[in-house]
Write a structure and sequence with these properties.
Elements (H helix, E strand, L loop, with lengths): L2 E8 L3 H12 L4 E4 L7 H9 L2 E4 L11 E2 L7 H6 L2 H10 L4 E3 L4 E4 L4 H13 L3 E3 L4 E6 L9 E5 L2 E10 L14 H8 L4 E7 L3 E2 L6 H4 L5 E8 L6 E9 L3 E3 L1 H7 L8 E4 L6 H11 L4 H5 L5 H9 L13 H12 L1 E3 L3 E2 L7 E6 L16 E3 L7 E2 L4 H14 L8
Parallel strand pairs: 1-2, 1-10, 2-7, 10-20
Antiparallel strand pairs: 3-6, 4-21, 5-6, 8-9, 9-10, 11-19, 12-15, 12-18, 13-14, 13-16, 14-15, 16-17
Helix pairs in contact: 1-5, 1-13, 9-12
The structure holds flavin-adenine dinucleotide.
Amino acid sequence: MSLHFDVVVIGAGAAGLFCAAQAGQRGLKVLIVDHSERIAEKIRISGGGRCNFTNRDIDIRAPQKHFVGENPNFCRSALSRYTPQQFIALIDRYGIAHHEKHKGQLFCDGPSQQIIDMLLAECAAGNVERWQPCKVRGVVFDADAAVADRYRIDTDRGPVHTAQIVVATGGLSIPQLGASDFGYRLAAQFGLRMVTPRPALVPLTFAGDGWAPYAALAGLALPVQIAVGAKKERMAFLEDLLFTHRGLSGPAVLQISSYWKEGVPLGIDFAPGTDVAAALGEAKSRSRKRIANELATMVPSRLADAWVGEDPALQRPINEAADKALSALAERIARWQITPSGTEGYKKAEVTAGGVDTRDLSSQTMESKQPGLYFIGEVVDVTGWLGGYNFQWAWASAFACANSLSSGSS
Ligand SMILES: Cc1cc2nc3c(=O)[nH]c(=O)nc-3n(C[C@H](O)[C@H](O)[C@H](O)COP(=O)(O)OP(=O)(O)OC[C@H]3O[C@@H](n4cnc5c(N)ncnc54)[C@H](O)[C@@H]3O)c2cc1C
């Protein structure tokens, strides 16, 4: 005999667990299924093990401005109906100590496991049944069946009937933690449109010999302003950049990667807030120090040495330098242009941009054009900035969905 639930949530990550808990606490009979051995692995490793669970800087009037997607306004409704303050109130109720680190980012003082334990306790409070590990083999829709039984989900533990399915299977990043394209395939099965997925919040790489002169800078971190695009399309971040053996990483690069498109150059200012051309000109009028030493008062000396080392005209005291050579140097410090060849891919990406096309979803309920089929969290074409925004989207989309689910037969 087949089992029946009001709602079956597929994927027990951040969005799935929160949605299941909320729906269960509303009195719905909820099953959550996940194919992984371990629960909510991404929460566990997030924020360096301290889970950056939300961001206080979300602008209540325009929450969409910290999100990327074909329609950034899609996330506005859910984000305004479940705010960071509401999630903070929840974790305060559980006595989970937390602190603000940088630009509104809130982290647990202790391990991320506290957030997982809280979500499991919330699920228990809603009598949510959890099957894990349990594979979902397929989903069948029967338009002629009673609404309560219109979906059959074939799992390792047998078939389950339900009126509503919530897909919370996340994106493709970090495949070793159970990421799969299940959500995308299910969307395709029901004729929903997709925005091609791509790695985001990801280090950028530079192929061939072009990177060789900079590989020696691996390990160097410094604050920069990084930008991509022009005019209305321009996006810029003031954050730390990290040189690696294969390219660039650090928060500045992860942030810009969500906006970067193949073939487009990045513009990097290594001395934001400093007029390097004026400072070098002023140094020339009073100093006999080597150019690299003067430059090292504005940027880290490793970077100053590398940049000056590239041009023989700069291997001299600054008072002997040609104005043209100094202004070219200033230009390369304040407006360095470099075009990445690619990204480190899903293996290193914190998130997947793209996903289920929001044109086929309701921004109020997360229900798709296929009745009773919902998509929440990262599987949707909504990608947050680095800094707790992705978890806030997971909580908010889950909340919007959970509050629109019905007891199944209506
Ligand atoms: C290293 C790292 C650090 C991060 N740090 C932060 C941070 O500090 N702050 C922040 O806001 N965001 C962070 N993120 C992003 C954040 O973890 C995700 O955006 C968030 O977890 C998405 O939630 P989700 O529930 O949609 O998907 P997930 O949390 O990925 O959950 C998806 C679940 O679905 C399951 N699943 C997948 N396929 C199937 C299938 N076929 N059948 C059954 N189950 C399936 C998976 O096993 C998984 O449990 C980080 C990500 C990474 C990789």
